[in-house]
Amino acid sequence: MKNGKAIGWLVVLAACGFVRAVAAAEADAATAEEAINNVRAAVRFLHDKGSSGFAEFNNKDGKWVWKDSYVFVFDCRRNKMLAHPLRPDLVGQPIMQITDNSGKFIFRELCKVGTEPRGGWVEYMWQKPGAGKLSRKLSYALAADISFTTGIEVGAGIYDEKLSVPELGKVLEKMSDPAKLPAL
After folding, report:
1. What does UniProt give as the signal peptide span (predicted)?
2. What is the pLDDT along the chain (184 residues), one digit of tens a residue?
3. What pTM value is reported for the model?
4. Is the same domain home to 79 and 113?
5. Does residue 73 sit in the same domain as residue 163?
């Protein structure tokens, strides 16, 4: 009977370790709210700095990279990646032909939703930082207002297997309506 109790405790302890590991992984995962807030902050930054601010987004150790996410900047009108902290090979390259494994034209979709008044979300497959494999990514894009320039958009994404684009639209709506935000 003692051995049965010992095995039972080992199972409980192992399960607790698993729960802690899952909680730690979730704590390291960017949230939709963080993606929206960081994209909006980046848009404000570029509004103030102009095109001279693009370089800030290429720093993999900079403030625009957090948890398992990052801000990237692209030009829809000129079909070019302007800044990407984890994929410097994409900077300066054409983007409109980039597809995921299902054939979805990622940046064509991001360019469409980014011009909506509040921006929007696009779902696609992309390599998650540190994972070494493709994961489901949902990216939020928003147009940036930069003097004498049009077509610039800012994006950031989350890796989530469960959230849907309509659910993320509700998060965006809530964050865009001051009446729906929690009281401070």
Report:
1. 1-24
2. 555 554 444 444 444 443 333 343 457 899 999 999 999 999 999 999 999 999 999 999 999 999 999 999 999 999 999 999 999 999 999 999 999 999 999 999 999 999 999 999 999 999 898 888 899 999 999 999 998 889 999 999 999 999 999 999 999 999 987 665 555 4
3. 0.82
4. yes
5. yes
